[in-house]
Specification:
Layout (H helix, E strand, L loop, with lengths): L1 E5 L3 H6 L13 H13 L3 E6 L1 H9 L6 E4 L12 H8 L4 E2 L3 H8 L1 H10 L7 E4 L14 E5 L13 E2 L2 H15 L3 E5 L5 E7 L6 E10 L10 H5 L1 H4 E4 L3 H18 L4 E8 L5 E7 L10 H8 L4 H17 L1
Helix pairs in contact: 2-12
Length: 325
């Protein structure tokens, strides 16, 4: 089986003049190499495609693949993660991971929370700030947490994200609106324990496969899982596996959220406890990072005794079984 691989290589965008922060979600060569080696070891033939412009060119030339392993994040627009799946749909080429509808929804953290809330699953109360005047209408109780509505990898999240007054809220929203040119998600800040859960499968075949708790070292002052802290996790974070009872609750909420949102094949769900210990959905990552060493999903799988090779094979098995139906 020939597997094409679509991705956004960070170095290519840096050479085009984009900044480190603009390309923070994109993948390094070592990630593409890791995925490709795992696919080959699993018995697949592979072909690198790259970003959507390369994909479009190859499709117009008549190129086909049996399936495409898609981790492309896209550069522009609130539906940027959906662009490659939608293009592949147009050519009736199957692919790994979620479809364009799910990836458009899940990138918008506010719309995603509305679906989760409608399903009766716990998520912090929130508001969407489209313009700075919207801040005056927010009635949520402080402290609050603010972040760009459609970024990943902790982009736009820093020690400033936890907000304790209306004045701070205005300043942070003003900064985020200008810097990221997109709405801001403002939600109630939850002071409890923070978890990320790995999941594979689709629909009724969904199952959580590993978990880790984000525990900050005493020397880290912000206690915020920001882009900076993610990139320097060795210095500021001690990942750990929670007790069995908590793990079970996290797995149950994760699997429910994954199925409600219609996610496919593999990814992560981020959860956090409120001040009474109740677990809440924070966000879903249906295109989770797959760096063999540094990404959260491979790390938490290692805690669960699942190798990187096994993780890729589980994801591929989900996709192939789903396509056969």
């Amino acid at each position: 089986m020939l597997v094409g691989i679509t991705y956004d290589l960070r170095d290519e965008y840096l050479k085009e003049g984009f900044t480190e922060e603009e390309t923070a979600e994109f993948d390094k060569e070592e990630t593409i190499e890791g995925i490709e080696n795992a696919l080959i070891k699993a018995g697949f033939e592979t072909e690198r495609i790259g970003h959507i412009r390369n994909l479009a060119k190859l499709l117009v030339e008549g190129k086909k693949w049996d399936i495409v392993f898609n981790i492309s994040e896209g550069m522009y627009g609130l539906a940027r993660e959906a662009q490659v799946p939608c293009l592949l749909d147009a050519y009736n080429i199957p692919y790994v991971f979620s479809d364009g509808l799910v990836l458009s929804l899940s990138l918008h953290k506010g719309l995603t929370k509305r679906v989760i809330r409608d399903a009766g699953l716990a998520t912090p109360d929130f508001a969407i700030v489209e313009t700075i005047n919207d801040v005056d209408d927010i009635k949520l109780k402080f402290p609050l947490f603010a972040k760009p509505v459609a970024e990943g990898t902790g982009k736009g999240i820093s020690g400033l994200s936890k907000i304790t007054s209306k004045e701070e809220l205005k300043e942070v929203c003003k900064m985020l609106l200008k810097k990221f040119n997109q709405p801001v998600l403002v939600e109630r800040f939850l002071p409890g324990r923070e978890f990320t859960v790995g999941v594979v499968g689709t629909g009724k075949e969904t199952r959580a496969v590993g978990i880790m708790e984000v525990v900050f070292k005493k020397t880290e002052k912000t206690k915020i899982y920001s882009l900076e802290n993610k990139e320097n996790y060795h210095e500021v974070i001690d990942y750990s596996v929670p007790e069995e009872e908590i793990t079970k609750l996290c797995y149950e909420l994760t699997e429910n959220c994954w199925q409600v949102l219609g996610c496919r094949d593999g990814g992560r769900v981020d959860l956090r406890m409120d001040d009474t210990g109740v677990l809440n959905f924070i966000e879903v990552n249906p295109l989770a990072g797959l760096n063999p060493v540094h990404s959260d999903l491979p790390i938490l799988c290692r805690f669960a005794g699942i190798s990187y090779q096994k993780l890729i094979e589980m994801i591929m098995d989900s996709a192939i079984q789903r396509i056969k139906k």
